[in-house]
Amino acid sequence: MDSILGLAPLIQFFLVFSVFGLIGVLGPALVRRRAKGLAAKEHHDVLGIMFSVAAAFYGVVLAFVIVAAWQNFQEATARERAEALALTEIYVISTRLPPPMQQRMLAALRGYITDALNYEWSGKPNLRAGRQELVTMFNELLALEPQTTKQAILYGKAMDQISRLFEARQERLLYTQNNIPQIVWTVIIFGAVVTIALSFFFFTQHRVLQAVISMLFAMLVGLTIIAIYDLSHPYQGFSRIHPAGFKELLREIDRRTAALAGSQAPSVFAPVR
Fold first, then answer.
1. What is the pTM of this model?
2. What are the boundaries of each domain within the chain?
3. Range 204-241 burial, b when 16+ CB lie within 10 A, else e
C-alpha cells in the first residue's frame, strides 16, 4: 500500500470508489444467485443480529484507531515545528559568529535542511541523512570561547537549541515509521472483510437499491482505512506534513550566504585562538 501514499487525494478516492464500489455491487449479486434461500425473513432476523454486533464492534475499532492516528499526526506536526524553531534559533545565533565559523555553521545548517527535505521527507526516508551536519554544528559550537557575559548567554542558548534539535530530530524520525502495529492492521482488514461480506446477505426486492446501499457502505469502510493509512505516515505521501519552516529557513540561509559574499557581518564572539 506504500504506492498509494504518493497519489493525490482525488486519485485515492477514485481507486477506493472503484475497488470497494465494485465489491459492494458484485457481492450482493453473487450471493443472491447462490443463496436464494437466505431471502426469507427468518434468515434476516438472525443475520441482522450478527451484522449489528459485527458492525458495532468494527465501528468501535475504526473509531479508536483513527483517533489514535490523528493524534499521532498532530504530534508529528508539533515535532516538525519544534525542529524548525530550533534550527531558526541556531541560525540567528550563527549570524553573530566570527566570519569563518559563521560560514561553516551556515553551510552545515543548509546541508542539514537540504538532506532533511530530500531524503527524510520521501517515500523511503534515509534516517542517516543530516546526521553528519548536526555533529558538525555541535563541534563548531564547542570550539567557541565566550569572553563576555553576553557571549556566554548566547553560547548557552546555542547549546540548548542544539540539544533541542537532537531531541526533535530523533522524535521526528520515530514518527516516520508506521505507528500502527501489524496486529491492529490485521484486525482492521479482517473486520472490513467480515463486515462488508455480512452486508451481502440482506436481500430486498429492489436490486438496484440494495446494490447502491452495499456500494456506499463498502466505500465508507474503504475511505476510513485509507484515511488511517495516510495519517499513520505523517512524513510520506501526498498528504504528508509540509516542511514550510524548513523551506523558509533554507531561503533565508541562501540570502544570508549571498550577502556574506559581499560584506562581513559583525560578531559578538571573540575569534578563537
1. 0.74
2. 21-260
3. eeeeeebbebbbebbbebbebbbbbbbbbbbbbbebbb
